[in-house]
Write a structure and sequence with these properties.
Elements lengths: L18 H13 L20 H10 L6 E5 L2 E3 L7 E3 L5 E5 L11 H24 L4
Antiparallel strand pairs: 1-4, 2-3
Helix pairs in contact: 1-2, 2-3
């Protein structure tokens, strides 16, 4: 993978392809002390709708979710379902980071859904914060 030379480990998979193996790989990485990053809205969308996987990882591991959003002036915006952006080198950019969210280990299905909604609200706030700086 493109960032492996920088010590970044990649876990391949998604909810539609190799999801169970990817989830187990993420659990193993977290338990090995690695920090993981993922997009919580899944490979099929809808955009900005949090899927359960990120909540369940936090629940099972006891590790926090750290909500993050970013924006950049000069960027490539992909024509994909999630409208992902890739900042160009030397572009002015902003990074917005929310408070860590600790999901309790004892959660009902309703609790998991509520935590997903709470994460969505926070990510939406961070996205608006980036927009206020003029970096959509």
């Amino acid at each position: 993978y493109a960032v492996s030379w920088r010590g970044v480990v990649s876990v391949a998979g998604s909810s539609t392809r190799g999801g169970r193996a990817a989830y187990k790989g993420l659990l193993r990485a977290i338990r090995d002390g690695l920090a993981v990053a993922l997009t919580p809205d899944g490979p099929k969308g809808p955009i900005h709708e949090v899927k359960d996987g990120v909540i369940r990882l936090a629940q099972q591991t006891g590790k926090p979710i750290l909500p993050i959003s970013y924006g950049a002036v000069w960027r490539k915006q992909f024509a994909s379902w999630d409208e992902m952006i890739l900042p160009y080198p030397f572009s002015r950019a902003v990074l917005s980071i929310g408070e860590p969210m600790y999901v309790p280990r004892e959660c009902t299905e309703e609790d998991v859904a509520a935590w997903g909604q709470k994460l969505k609200v926070e990510l939406d706030r961070l996205n608006r914060e980036c927009d206020e700086y003029g970096y959509p």
